Amino acid sequence: MPLRGIKVIELAGLAPVPFCGMILSNFGASVVRVDRASSEVPNIAIDFLGNGKRSVGLNLKSKEGTDILKKMSQQSDVILDPFRPGTMEKLGLGPDTLMLKNKRLIYARLSGFGQTGPYAKMAGHDINYVGLSGLLSLFGRHHEKPTPPVNLTADFGGGGLTCAFGIVLALLERTRSNEGQVIDVSMVEGSAYLGSWLYRSQGLAGLWGQPRGKNLLDGGAHFYDTYETRDGQFMAVGALEPQFYAVLLEKLGLSGDDLPQFGDFEESRSRLAKIFKEKTQDEWCTVFEGTDACVTPVLSLESAPLNPQNEARCSFQKSKSGDIIPSPAPRLSRTPGCDRTADKLSPATGQNSIDILLEYGFTTDQIQKYVQQGIIYQKDLSTKL
Q1: What mean pLDDT is reported for the chain?
Q2: Of 20, 61, 22, 54, whose CA–CA distance to 38 is shortest?
Q3: In 3D, which of 4, 37, 1 has the Cα closest to residue 353?
Q4: How confident is the model over 283-309, as a mean pLDDT?
Q5: The pTM of the whole model exceeds 0.85
Q6: Catalytic choice (126, 155, 218, 339)
Q7: Which has more pLDDT, 377 or 81?
Q8: Is 282 a catalytic residue?
Q9: Which residues make Cβ contacts (< 8 Å) with residue 190, sequence separation at least 6?
Q10: Looking at the predicted structure, is the pLDDT value of residue 50 above 80?
Q11: Buried b (16+ CB within 10 A) or exposed e, 312-331
């Protein structure tokens, strides 16, 4: 696996950093998640992306706890910081401190607004970051308010994935310089960068220029929209190019005169809506399968793994816990990633504390003392000591 031998310390956080850690784990890195030294974990902090990771329960509000993390960082390649700017510095665990002892350390800081600027220490969520990036203004139907695409854009695209990419770049550069560096990931900037094509294409006549929801790619055109089928399912139509639109009309038994590509979009949309209501989703799949009409079913999370294309490529897999999950992407021909889920989707808080500290050079006596003092938390302690 391409990241085999890379040791990552992930400070426990919400969606973006766990996703970044999951990517690194799926491609071979050893990821240790640092949880609080307590069995009481709020539901919101449950890590749904903990597959392949291990957990150490550590009290970072104590000097002994921060000393443990400092020692671990000296033997690690990457630190994943999910906190607001200044938090790690207050703990004495900022990059200036940790990189002083380990010049090869890559310190990845993933936050909403970045490490600097007037918003840096403000709270926020995906909707706020996408709003500030400019992209949220583009999402939504005409005459309706902007609609966030769940928390996909900032948390996972502009946040976790961008951070993982930055880490891989830093690891590559380190092979030449033998030095680490600090990575400052702002989910606002990551989202905006993700939307580079949207920014750069705004002046393209015919593509943009209309109000939200009235452009070719935002639901304004009848040939780039979704339509309900007779059984209450949906089909996605993306017949943007003229040659593809011609195939769409052919499969619907229509001509260009019947339904011109560029005309009254709303009237054409109404006609297509009535036509798609005449058949079930499976029936429409049969009509369009293997054609260039750019028409595919809108699948649910349950049905997507059963689609013939996805089945043929093993695009989804069953984890050892029985969950159906996406397979790691992209695919590498010699060193592909793989899901590393153990018996549970995510390790319990402190599930591996003792084993991890032994690997980092702590003695049994030291660990026993830390357990007694509440510096570390080990789940199922009786089975370990």
Answers
A1: 92
A2: 61
A3: 37
A4: 95
A5: yes
A6: 155
A7: 81
A8: no
A9: 154, 157, 158, 159, 162, 163
A10: yes
A11: eeeebeebeeeeebebbeee
